[in-house]
Amino acid sequence: MLSSDKSRRDHARNLLFGSKDQGKAWVRGGWKKESNADTLGFDIGHELAAAEAKEEAQWIRDAREGMMKVNEGLSVF
Questions:
Q1: What are the DSSP calls for the chain, one per residue?
Q2: pLDDT(50) > 60
Q3: What is the pLDDT of residue 20?
């Protein structure tokens, strides 16, 4: 609902208020049928954060490396 594109806002409003389940089916997997499912959340929130995520910012690489270390540590069990 925060998109600058009016058609996307209308689509989101229709999912929430135009369906009997208030969008629950969409959340449970219907979002995969969207034409832009791979970039669905990029226009929500701060534009810079989305740009950083697209370029795989340093904090994303650091987080991934940290999770790999956790995985290695847990593998001893």
A1: ---S-HHHHHHHHHHHHSSTTTTHHHHTTGGGGSTTGGGTTTTSS-HHHHHHHHTT-HHHHHHHHHHHHHHHHHTT-
A2: no
A3: 87
- Determine the Cα–Cα distance for residues 13 and 41; give it in Å rounded to an integer: 15
Residue 50, judged by CB atoms within 10 A of its CB (0-12, 13-18, 19+), counts as: middle
Decide: 22 and 16 in contact? Cβ < 8 Å. Answer: yes
Residue range 20-29, pLDDT digits in tens: 888 888 888 8
- pTM reported for the whole predicted model: 0.44
Residue tagged 């208020």 (tokens): 17
